[in-house]
Amino acid sequence: VSIVMPRYNSAFRAAVLERDSIVGSWHNLDKEDYSIPFIGVRTNDNRPWIPESHKNPESKTYSVRFSPDTENEYQAIGQFSYSKDRATGTFITETGDYRFLEGDITNDNLVVSCFDGAHMFLFQAEMVGDSLLDGMFYSGKHYSEPWIAVEDPEASLRDPNSITYLNDDSETIEVDVMTLDGDFTTIDQEDFEGRVTIVQIFGSWCPNCYDENEFYKELYDDYAGQGFQVIPIAFEASDDFHKNAEAVRKQFNDIGITYAAYLGGKRNKKTTSEMFPMLNQIISYPTSVYIDKMGNVRKIHTGFYGPGTGQLYIDYVNETRSFIEELLAEEPA
């Protein structure tokens, strides 16, 4: 049995051993020889989620430190809801969020996880008072990282509109890219004049980028007739151009996006930053550059807080729509 995942470049390959069991492996096709074995057993139980027990959850916000007390330490926000022995929530970093995590609380041990077709994440920690201690984060079979957290309703991160910026305010965006058909072209001032534009730096392998693409499709459908456009530039996992182009086409077809996408190269934040020398840095896929009708960069948004972040996402959607409407209402000088 082969099950190709929607959205991302991955697949399950398995064999049905008996009527009630299946065994095989999940393959990340963006990586060379990367697979994780699995066993599936038919059950009459509901999936590990009990809606009735989650009607009146206790919600908590945490200040989180990943890789604490090391040179690689970075901050995050934890948002979790607890009901009896159930937990849901997410972690928010300055580059995005971990989307929809769900799991159990057993003997004061928290375990939450998710699988979205591109990544397998598992977080575990000991619940001690208002803290989460001795935490470990596992990504697939290749990465693990310690973390700790303390309850903090005021936990915050840097403003995502302040992290990436123009080195010189007079500069604009100019970058050489390839179409998905393999033709070289340049995205520059001529592409922006007279239209409100988002230049989107993303990757089809990135779940936060997928969530952003769904939102940008909504924006395009609502505002394209008023002079709004999205120019997505993908940085992909493979050295194979055709494989990368197909991965982007697959995702855009799944979402129903009709505007053109471009390839910028292989995913690597250092080389991506070098392709955009007018910017101080690229630390996240996605990063979005907002450009007005005169071709001026008006805002740069680092990362993406998706639907899993609740009110943060709602606020972002409302603010983004308002900002685009403001730019569309401006008359070119």
Structure notes:
The chain has 333 residues and is α+β, with helices and mostly antiparallel strands. The protein has 3 domains: 2-41, no CATH class; 51-151, Lipocalin (Beta Barrel); 175-329, 3-Layer(aba) Sandwich (Glutaredoxin), CATH 3.40.30. The protein is 19% helix and 41% strand. The chain has helices at residues 189-192, 207-223, 241-255, 269-275, 311-329, and strands at residues 2-4, 10-18, 21-28, 35-41, 58-66, 74-83, 86-93, 96-97, 101-106, 109-115, 120-128, 131-139, 143-151, 175-179, 184-187, 196-202, 228-236, 262-266, 287-291, 297-302. Strands 5-6-7-9-10-11-12-13 form an 8-stranded antiparallel barrel. Strands 15-14-18-17-16-19-20 form a 7-stranded mixed β-sheet, sandwiched between helices. A hairpin with a 2-residue loop joins β6 (74-83) and β7. The chain is globular, with a radius of gyration of 21 Å. The N and C termini lie far apart (60 Å). The mean pLDDT is 93.
